[in-house]
Recover the amino acids of this structure.
């Protein structure tokens, strides 16, 4: 007997669309809040990352794995931290061993496949950490390509995944320009950050925000003008990743450098 999931795997096809690589864009607060004001919902969850405050400790990654039942030793995670190192001779290195779950205990750059790059401290021009997670796009391509409605967007903007509907086709993983989606190693369904929806809808902070001892991560309601996150987005220089894809990401960054991919 063929199951609903197997049937849909064999019968559904979707055409892929090629899109260019991207960097980041500085946000125009007037345009952003004009759009927000036009929407009818009272809550629109957004995330704020301050790269100046991130130290690459990995506490956020540990907390996320434990909270959201992502196997601790699996080489996948809902959120991760990237390390960027720019040398004085113009070379750029970036790594995130195990998503930075254990932080960055060595100055060696993990090139993958068991290879490492040693960089002398006196040859470093600058180095910094950049947390990554689902951008909870206003126009989420993952929702658009899901053939069964397993990936959907809640009225407050958060993109969710219903494991009972997911058929594991992988279209959403291919469609995401931010590389935030993966197959859950136990459930074998699409997985990603959902802003700890089970927590924020009860007035709690996300697990990663609660675990960050340095205030590098914040979540807020951009519909609330008195929300601390809203005030920062309104008054400070913030950017988003890969704006040219037209997804309108709702994860904002302070101190986003041009080298960030």
């Amino acid at each position: 007997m063929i199951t609903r999931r197997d049937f849909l795997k064999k019968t559904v096809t979707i055409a892929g669309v090629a899109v260019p690589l991207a960097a980041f864009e500085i946000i125009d607060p007037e345009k952003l809040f004009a759009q927000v004001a036009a929407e009818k919902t009272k809550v629109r969850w957004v995330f704020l990352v301050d790269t100046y405050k991130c130290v690459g400790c990995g506490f956020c990654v540990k907390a996320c794995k434990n909270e959201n039942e992502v196997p601790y030793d699996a080489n996948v995670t809902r959120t991760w931290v990237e390390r960027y190192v720019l040398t004085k001779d113009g070379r750029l290195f970036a790594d995130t061993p195990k998503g930075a779950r254990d932080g960055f205990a060595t100055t060696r750059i993990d090139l993958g496949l068991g290879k490492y790059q040693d960089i002398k401290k006196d040859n470093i021009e600058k180095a910094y950490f950049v947390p990554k997670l689902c951008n909870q796009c206003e126009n989420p391509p993952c929702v658009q390509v899901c053939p069964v409605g397993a990936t959907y967007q809640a009225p407050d903007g958060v993109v969710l995944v219903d494991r009972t509907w997911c058929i594991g086709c992988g279209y959403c993983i291919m469609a995401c320009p931010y590389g935030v989606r993966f197959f859950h190693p136990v459930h074998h369904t699409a997985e990603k950050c959902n802003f700890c929806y089970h927590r924020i809808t009860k007035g709690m902070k996300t697990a990663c925000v609660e675990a960050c001892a340095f205030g590098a991560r914040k979540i807020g309601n951009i519909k609330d003008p008195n929300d601390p996150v809203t005030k920062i987005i309104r008054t400070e220089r913030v950017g988003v990743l890969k704006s040219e894809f037209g997804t309108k990401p709702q994860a904002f960054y302070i101190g986003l450098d041009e080298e960030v991919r």
The first strand starts at residue 24 and ends at 26.
